[in-house]
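User: Before I run my own analysis I want an independent prediction to cross-check against. Here's the chain; please return only the structure tokens and, at the end, one sentence I can use as a sanity check.
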Amino acid sequence: MRQIFTTVLAGFLALAAAPGLANERPVVVELFTSQGCSSCPPADAFLEQLAVRDDVLALSLHVDYWDYIGWTDTFASPDHTARQRGYAKANDRKMVYTPQMIINGADHAVGTRFKDVSELIDKHLARSGGDLSVDLAEEDGMVHLTARTPSPRAMPLAVYLVRYLPEETVEIERGENAGKTITYVNIVTGMQTLARWDTVEPLELSFERPKDAAASAILLQYEGHGTIEAVARLP
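Assistant: Structure tokens:
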């Protein structure tokens, strides 16, 4: 496990032509990884196994803080590093590391501790889907989203549009994984905030279907790197 000490920084439902409900939501697993991390390939392979499950949305977020050791990660983004540090700050942790998995925005585990990760996934699957519903419909390249709940939350939810590549294989030439060819799945290429929802009134919004992404998903997450409350995939 690679670790780096940091300063404290400020830091679903399948889409179809007809609307659907997100009550039986998949569990979101975010893997913070790096092509320059020798401990990460087993976690990357484990995420590939999780990605085929219907009850899990597995996302790979490549961080940039290992780029200096000899290989620049081709998928790394400072936004991913900032998101990981945001999770650390929200949970009073003073360090970030790779490989790390964040489960539903609420729990974390070392990405190579497969039993721990599996138990956390099962714990979140056992939770009720709650009374928050999300409807999605698409027409003429526009996606229409409606979210509602009869029980307003105490905190606002951020509505994120996540874009990702389903699979890419990389030949790593230098650094700790020099000579390895590694396949990565569900590689996040962007995360955009679409709205801030106070949950008091139903949320209705429309947005253009992303043209620069092979796959996309909607996350409804408590602000400040809190729990992910709903998920919607755009196939």
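Sanity check: The CA atoms of residues 163 and 211 lie 10 Å apart.
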